[in-house]
Design a protein that fits this description.
Elements: H1 3-23, H2 37-42, H3 53-64, H4 86-98, H5 109-125, E1 145-149, H6 152-167, H7 171-175, E2 182-187, H8 193-201, E3 208-211, H9 222-234, E4 238-245, H10 257-266, E5 270-274, H11 294-297, E6 300-303, E7 316-320, H12 323-330, H13 340-344, H14 362-398, E8 402-404, E9 412-417, H15 428-445, E10 451-455, E11 458-464, H16 472-494
Parallel strand pairs: 2-3, 2-4, 4-5, 5-6
Antiparallel strand pairs: 1-7, 6-7, 8-9, 9-11, 10-11
Helix pairs in contact: 4-14, 5-14, 6-8, 6-12, 14-16, 15-16
The protein binds pyridoxal-5'-phosphate.
């Protein structure tokens, strides 16, 4: 394909995306295809001869779109938003077109240096400490720094490796870890990526101590954490990492970071803060409280622009206060990667900051988003999500059939169907059954998509607002569908 042909063909793809975004709200949110049906439809040998792009796009429409669940749909309210946006797509296109591989500073200085600057800018805008910046405001080099990981799961894994490196004086990377000696702490509401990190690090998932939460707020119980740390130390174990969650996956609970940090540091443990979804809200001054305690206490911190912040997957921003622990855990220098810039010590080689060697130019995508929206545009987007979620909370509170399951947080509302139309409380098991049935009814209607969790053994619906195409009308429309489905289910239950 010549450059001129590419110019023409690229317009067709952009047209396809623009049409898709314009019409996505008219499609059923959740795909209902049977397992295997997409594979069967697209299966076959690689064509011997080149095919025109029109053919490919027509097959996307015909064969793939039916098997898509539309994450950019304005009534996608499941899990957390994974926002794309026009700016992010254009930034991603730049990254693909440039096609640079930034494993070393020397393999593309702009890839490394833009990433450092963008993450310094974002750290400051989120209210993290200067200690997390590559370059301090006075221009002097910092001890910390940020890196774009593919996901928060990888960020948490690398945080644990850095914490282990520090706790073992570097022996974890040379000798491995002694079974049962090292422990990790997080609440029962922490994301499963922590368990996976423990499995991958060789600690084993049993190293993770699951700390109780308050039954209503879902925040970690600090006294229980203190007890668990004390018991482990008394038994000769070494606490390696405490993880605080800012915005739990289930209900958006924000753990007491300050108290957890003080406890972690008293025991020589690393404090990692998982703010994968909620952290970006701190761009708005009125939501800056979510990151309280991070500047003073966190050793590492992750938040995902690829969730709420309009940056097409993948883009997870991760910072460490002391990069020597992270680089110490992960650096490796085969002869074929040696180069004078690395040896000078004056550059950041991001290959030492994550498990893989090769890396994309994700920073140009994030930079495009930050510049295209500006702080005012990003704040307007975040605030719209919070306002829409407040409307959901108002609707839940005003309807006697529904009960909040936890305090709403930012764009996330957790609730359940717990009473009949007169407001008479249903037995818990019946409420569980009806809540699950209600979610199925909404999701199979094609109108909207909600997801669920369990809290203290009870089934709970999660309504996560924050999509870039979501309007107040989408919230009202979804509520109507939900309310009608509840009428029908309660009618059947009473009959
Ligand atoms: N942490 C929290 C609190 C999450 O909610 C999630 C995903 O929703 C993750 C971590 C994992 O994110 P990722 O898919 O980027 O690994």
């Amino acid at each position: 394909m010549s450059a001129e042909q590419f110019r023409t063909e690229a317009h067709k793809v952009i047209d396809w995306i623009a049409d898709y975004w314009a019409t996505v709200g008219e499609r059923p949110v959740l795909s209902t295809v049977e397992p295997g049906s997409v594979a069967e439809a697209v299966d076959g040998p690689i064509p011997d001869d080149p095919e025109p792009l029109e053919q490919v796009l027509s097959d996307v429409d015909r064969l793939l779109v039916p098997g898509l669940t539309h994450w950019q749909h304005p009534r996608f309210f499941a899990y957390f938003p994974a926002n794309s946006s026009p700016a992010a797509v254009l930034g991603d296109l730049l990254s693909s077109g440039i096609g640079a591989q930034g494993m070393l500073w020397a393999t593309s200085p702009s890839v490394s240096e833009l990433e450092q600057v963008v993450l310094d800018q974002l750290a400051r805008a989120l209210g993290l400490s200067e200690a997390f910046c590559h370059r301090r405001e006075d221009g002097s080099p910092g001890a910390g720094g940020g890196v774009i990981q593919d996901t928060a799961s990888t960020a948490t894994f690398t945080a644990l490796l850095a914490a282990l490196h520090r706790a073992t004086g570097g022996r974890a990377r040379t000798e491995g870890v002694e079974s049962g000696r090292y422990t990790v702490y997080a609440s029962s509401q922490a994301h499963s990526s922590l368990q996976k990190a423990a499995m991958m690090s060789g600690l084993g998932e049993r190293a993770v101590r699951t700390i109780d939460v308050d039954a209503w707020t879902q925040q970690l119980d600090v006294a229980a954490l203190a007890e668990a740390l004390k018991a482990d130390v008394a038994a000769g174990r070494v606490p390696v990492m405490v993880q605080a969650c800012v915005g739990t996956t289930g209900t958006g609970a924000v753990d007491p970071v300050t108290e957890m940090g003080a406890l972690a540091h008293r025991h020589g443990a690393w404090l990692h803060v998982d703010a994968a979804w909620a952290g970006v809200a701190a761009l708005c001054p009125e939501h800056a409280w979510v990151n309280a305690g991070v500047a003073e206490h966190a050793d590492s911190y992750v938040t995902n622009p690829h969730k709420w912040l309009l940056t097409t997957f993948d883009c997870s921003s991760f910072w460490v206060r002391d990069r020597s622990a992270l680089v110490g855990a992960l650096s490796i220098l085969p002869e074929y990667l040696r180069n004078p810039a690395s040896e000078s010590g004056a550059v950041v080689d991001y290959r030492d900051w994550h498990p893989q060697l090769g890396r994309r130019f994700r920073a140009v995508k994030l930079w495009t988003v930050l510049r295209s929206y500006g702080l005012s545009g990003l704040r307007a987007h975040l605030r719209a999500g919070v306002a829409q979620a407040a409307r959901v909370t108002g609707l839940v509170d005003a309807d006697p059939r529904f009960t909040p399951a936890a305090p709403p947080c930012l764009g996330l509302v957790a609730f359940r169907l717990a009473a009949d139309a007169s407001g008479a409380r249903l037995p818990d098991a019946e409420a569980d059954r009806l809540t699950a049935a209600l979610m199925t009814a909404v999701n199979t209607s094609g109108e909207a998509y909600l997801s669920h969790t369990q809290l203290s053994g009870r089934t709970v619906l999660r309504w996560a607002v924050g999509g870039w195409q979501t309007t107040a009308a989408d919230v009202e429309r979804t509520w109507q569908v939900l309310s009608d489905a509840a009428d029908e289910l309660l009618g059947h239950a009473a009959a």
